[in-house]
Specification:
With 454 residues, this protein is of the alpha/beta class. The chain contains 19 helices and 16 strands.
Length: 454
């Protein structure tokens, strides 16, 4: 359990609180005054401080101010036999999380201690997530793709390797995985980053409109063509064109696209003069183009021209270790957009996010976080704030016990199974169990569970 530092110069109160919290499984570090408490605080790992206000050598006011300056995330609860509204306001202003007058209602104090430690651990987790997001952005060189998973790391390595080449890239993956972000990263990390970057969403256009959009037309080429119009390839000259949902284009446009890739030239609709362009081509699709070729819906020669470098964007269900980072990033975005101050996700909300299968991938996660930010009733997003389909999803994993079994053995099995489910990541296991990183480490030590730190 957590470690408490309790400072009080009244021996009976100090020993009584120590016994009460030790009976609940807490580790208690006693101190007879503020100075002793300050010295012990600097030598021990402490999760929460309970301090009297009036003590010799260093009073609780000074101790509170020192803790607020040196350990701003460490929760402090103040006790005093001389409680006034002015005293409560002053200590809360100086950083105390709560205020109790003596004699103390031990049950209420226990409840506040549990809640304060949980809130403190969550704030520390959120701080670490923010730091990790910033580190990953620096390492990747591109801020909008976030992930610590092996698949995302390999994907970013490939992006960095091919970004500054002219090679045609085919980006594949399910809808909502972020294929367009991969195209953005390829451009941002290339020497063409300051050149035109033109995007065309093929699925949104009919065959005739798509051809006109890609290659333009001459004046009088058809009814309504009252002037010459440049196509997207011409507008992208010297830069990059991104063709999204390339599997949707019709056979006649496929032929013309093949010619552009082979010869780097084309004619406008209704024109005869070849137009040469220097354009880097990036395509994306959620279809299996190899299957489309076999079934005669996509040209084989075009497929091989497009599939020079292939980048597969993994679905979110295959990179669940990235969910907390992505959710934290989206939370930061929507806090700014919606002028909210949501601090993070409760353990129950995190567990629900990890348990869900995310058929809509990152797009669905982003929408879920936006909804939760708007609907959250407290300072943290709880499970009940999430969309219904996420709240109602089970974990998909079961642990069974053969009775009789001791409580310690059952807890040991639960911790080991959860760490295994989290692929050895104890920080992730702690989140799934709804406890802090320090707590799971202590319980593993108490239960003599071996394991490498992660």
């Amino acid at each position: 359990m957590a470690s408490l530092l309790i400072a009080d110069d009244e021996k009976n109160i100090l020993s009584g609180l120590q016994l009460a919290f030790e009976d609940e499984g807490y580790e208690v570090i006693p101190a007879a005054n503020g100075r002793e408490a300050w010295e012990k605080l600097q030598k021990n790992i402490v999760d929460l401080v309970i301090t009297d206000l009036r003590m010799p050598e260093m009073d609780g006011y000074e101790l509170l101010k020192r803790i607020a300056a040196a350990y701003p995330t460490l929760p402090v609860i103040v006790l005093t036999g001389h409680g006034t509204i002015e005293t409560a306001v002053e200590t809360m202003r100086d950083g105390a999380v709560d205020f109790f007058t003596k004699p103390v209602d031990i049950d209420k104090l226990m409840l506040v201690v549990r809640k304060s430690i949980t809130a403190s651990e969550l704030k520390e987790q959120n701080r670490k997530l923010t730091e990790e997001i910033q580190r990953l952005r620096r390492e990747h060189g591109y801020s909008r793709i976030i992930g610590r998973s092996e698949k995302v790391s390999r994907m970013m390595q490939t992006i960095s390797q091919v970004a500054d080449t002219r090679a045609t890239v085919l980006v594949t993956g399910e809808s909502g995985t972020g294929k367009e972000l991969v195209a953005d990263a390829l451009v941002a990390l290339s020497s063409r980053s300051d050149k035109p970057f033109v995007k065309v969403h093929a699925a949104a256009l009919s065959a005739s409109l798509l051809e006109d959009e890609l290659f333009g037309h001459e004046k009088g080429a058809f009814t309504g063509a009252v002037s010459m119009k440049k196509g997207r390839f011409e507008l992208a000259d010297g830069g990059t064109i991104f063709l999204d949902e390339i599997g949707e284009i019709d056979p006649s446009t496929q032929v013309k696209l093949l010619r552009v890739l082979q010869e780097r030239e084309f004619e406008r609709v209704g024109g005869e003069k070849p137009i040469s362009v220097d354009v880097r081509v990036i395509c994306a699709t959620n279809r299996d183009l190899a299957k489309e070729v076999k079934e005669g819906r996509f040209r084989e020669d075009l497929y091989y021209r497009l599939n020079v470098v292939r980048i597969e964007v993994p679905p979110l269900r295959e990179r669940k270790e990235d969910i907390d980072l992505l959710a934290a990033s989206f939370l930061e975005t929507f806090n700014k957009e919606d002028k909210r101050k949501i601090e993070g996700f409760t353990p129950a909300a995190r567990k629900a996010l990890f348990a869900y299968s995310w058929p809509g991938n990152i797009r669905e996660l982003k929408n879920a976080v936006e909804s939760a930010v708007v609907l959250a009733r407290g300072s943290m997003i709880d499970k009940d704030d999430l969309p219904e389909q996420i709240r109602e999803t089970g974990s998909g994993s079961r642990i069974s016990f053969d009775l009789p079994i001791t409580l310690d053995e059952a807890e040991k099995r639960l911790i080991l199974e959860t760490i295994s489910y989290a692929k050895g990541n104890k920080t992730k296991a702690a989140e799934l169990l709804g406890i802090g990183r320090k707590t799971i480490t202590r319980r593993m030590q108490d239960l003599r569970i071996d394991g490498e730190e992660k």
